[in-house]
Batch of 2 targets.
Target 1
Amino acid sequence: MSALPITIPKHRGHWLLKSTLEIISGPLKFYEQTSQALQTDTFYADVLTGKAIMTANPDLIKYVLQTNQKNYPKDSGYDQLALLLGKGLVTSRGALWRKQRRIAQPAFYKKSLQNLFEAMREVAEQYLKELESKAGSIVDISQEMMSVTARIAMKSLFGAEMKGNLLEIYNCISYAQAYTTGRIFNPMSIPFTYLNGKHRKFRKHKKVLDDLLGGLITERKKSAAKHHDFLQMLLDARYEDTGQPMEHRQLLDELVTIFSAGHETSANGMSFILYQLAQSPEVVDQLRAEAADIIGDRLPLFEDISQLQYTKQVIEEGMRLFPPVWTVGRYAKEADEWNGYQIEKNMVVVNYIYNLHRHPALWESPEIFDPTRFTPEKVKARPRTHYLPFGAGPRMCIGNHFAMMEMILLLPLLVRSFDFYLIDDGSLELEPLITLRPKNGIKMRVRATKA
Ligand code: HEM
């Protein structure tokens, strides 16, 4: 990988609006066109709030997220996201984040995941039956995946069945994401959102989520039964310094965070993978062969998960092309220098994971879906920083093993029982909100394989 050019090139944009309009109308297109025009993977861009560095350079991304992470806290975009997630793990910083992460981490240790697996599998089994009843018809696969992952998160992490209308929850999260992304890309719009009803509508949606998850806390506090899930762990936790339990608001923020971050990402990941598979019959054949070999006709066991190597590769390659978290933002607390390049104080660094994963100097034929890129040998031979679907450094995803386990459980079950056919021309429009989503869903006809 060649070094960055001597001076980081700059994209100035419009004299008044800077790059804002281009970013609002398509942040991925903006990065692609600008990096091509400037012939670089890293450039400065003027935005309304100041200057930003946009990068898909693995060394700079590693430097910001890991090596010198202390100087690069999460940027103000996360404050907008906090409207939805409160002060939960994704959005908190400093001492609050550290103590919350310490409390939450054990829930994602291998032993705990093994305990959650049972509940995950139960939901997966139920869901397969539901999908069977839709066989022959056209479904929106992204809503389907949202429905199964939401129920998995509810059941395995909070010990609860999904109450309420799933479509309503889907719409709430969709609206909340579009709303907060709008505020992040175009901060000038914020005052208007209080006048044009958008903020009120957002509050209404947010309340649906708060009520749903707040209700679980109340119910659990009344329950005499013993539970061993994430919710119980947070309820039982006591802070080391004060010996006090978590306050209700903090607990609710953590649940909203874990529920949102913990199902929407995997759902989008799975939807894009099924989209790819509908166009890659030979990969489906291999997935089926592996499923037949390792799990046969039964349901997967926890021990099977680590054996499903090809399935894992398919998932990894799917998330290379369509990383559910397509960007992570940081800002420079103090002025800094990296490899001779100046990073001014308060400058935002936008790490483009999507473009890192399609970087032409890092990946051969990057647009091609090829799960053999993730054989153990190839993974070992490649710097880890070329592939960061779960981020890097101390703020790396806490749920990465949970998500992998969930997807490795679901994928063989789905391809074993169903064929998925894209409807229309199968064209896909991406919607890069907080997560990367298929803009108009993904319509597919589902057929039972045994039919
Ligand atoms: C395919 C699925 C997933 C992907 C691609 C993904 C990706 C990410 C990424 C890139 C980050 C880092 C953001 C940053 O540095 O700014 C992150 C953080 C986080 N993720 Fe995930 N995630 C997934 C699934 C999950 C699941 C299943 C859970 C929980 C059950 C979860 C909970 C979290 C939390 C709480 C954080 C914040 C961690 C912290 O800052 O301490 N994620 N995720």
Target 2
Amino acid sequence: MKYRRKLFRHRDAFDLKGTNELFLKAMRENCTYAYKHCPGYRAILDDAGFAPDRLQTVDDLADLPFLPTALFKRRRLFSVPRWRLPLVVTSSGTSSGKASEIGFTVGDLWAGLKMVLHICKLRHLLSFTPCHYVVFGYQPKHKNRTGVSRTAFGVTLFTPALSRTYALRWKKGAYVLDLGAVQDAIVKHSKSRFPLRFMGFPAYAWFLMKRMEEQNVQVRLPKGSRLMLGGGWKQFYAEQVDKSEFYALAKKVLGLDDKDIIEFYGAVEHPIFYNDCERHHFHIPIYSRVIIRDPVTLKPVPNGTPGLVNLISAMDIGTPLLSVMPDDLGILHDGCSCGCGLDSPWLEILGRVGMQDIKTCAAGASEILNKVEVEL
Ligand SMILES: [Zn+2]
């Protein structure tokens, strides 16, 4: 996978124009491999009459058949034998219990690590200063192979971790949301000389901050503290909480400024690390490309037009994740419209397709809240 190696070695993580050719070659290389080694993927391409050598220009990427992420919940697609996959992660599943299983080879993990190291520079997330961590997510369990729990844990490795407090704790065979313990930890760590970093679902952060506000608890966290949010704002579509309200509350109860809040976007079926810029926009990094498609014709639409989000990447060899379509609706904006200095386009997620019908709970905090015993 020499082109993937070259791409992931590239120094500027947002130099899309300078890496278009390399990206295309990495895609062709990966697609050819998957076609040869994954019978399920080959069948899909054959069915669509698409051969990997059709990828000759960047525009041809739009013709590569995209796989809905729901497909990975029904079918196991691997391009290498399971024993050669040191990591297999699952999505959080659905109410029907079906979850995607995505395999990573050693090379995939290595590429992923390089990507994270490059992208973390954007918001200076790597540091030798030790931090306390509060994770608004699952306490890791051997049996819990979900991508979100692994990602949340991975983020606590950006600095030396002095402690980790989890909002969802494993007690007597079930996850229990324990916001009281999290709040106690926040109050305690606010007096520490080391920064406190939060990581996890925005919904939990919101519930916690509301709880603090109701109890009139306000802290000023040490300098360098960060509120890092991942797993999407999906649950907020129902809650109708807008970001400015969220940020204002973070300032009020935690003393965190806008610049201290950092968001991530990604999915198990598209393990690319999207880190927001200082204006909270997800610029596309060189490791992926995004196409927005018309919901009816499925044809690509110009920047600025809403549509179905199609995510493209050559990072993963273990599972053919070359072109996937989650349930997200979004808009791709011209890079220059942000004003932060990055000129790569940025992705705005608008919501989910068929919110009423789709019960994917990748970050379905509200759903979890209904199921788990809540200790408030
Ligand atoms: Zn920006």
